[in-house]
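User: Let's play a game. I give you a shape written as tokens, and you guess the letters that built it. Ready? Here's round one.
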């Protein structure tokens, strides 16, 4: 999947979000080794220092850990991954509800629209 980074938001944050999403959707499995900083920087067409900064933040949060000379690996803490997944889902729901409100729908109207099948799946 292409990285599709834009200049509207800091690249570092977009990289961080992308790797988190890849972890929670199973692209990177628990315990799996991540590609190197240089590999991912090349894929994303960003400076390796920017990618390194994102990796450092992922390590700080515990989502990723380093094994000396072996690289970086995804946490095996499934509960942490599921918690992150729920957190991101809540944020997406909040953003959706805010957008619907901008269109003039209150929360109940939005929920009713969804119940009636106003969305295609």
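Assistant: Ready! My guess for every position:
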């Amino acid at each position: 999947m292409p990285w599709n980074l834009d200049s509207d938001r800091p690249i570092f944050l977009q990289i961080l979000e992308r790797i988190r999403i890849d972890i929670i959707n199973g692209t990177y499995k628990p315990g799996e080794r991540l590609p190197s900083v240089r590999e991912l920087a090349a894929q994303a067409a960003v400076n390796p220092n920017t990618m390194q900064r994102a990796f450092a933040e992922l390590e700080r949060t515990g989502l990723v850990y380093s094994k000396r000379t072996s690289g970086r690996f995804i946490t095996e803490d499934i509960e942490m991954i599921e918690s992150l997944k729920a957190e991101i889902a809540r944020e997406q729901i909040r953003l959706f509800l805010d957008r619907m409100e901008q269109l003039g729908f209150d929360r109940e109207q939005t929920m009713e629209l969804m119940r009636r099948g106003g969305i295609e799946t």
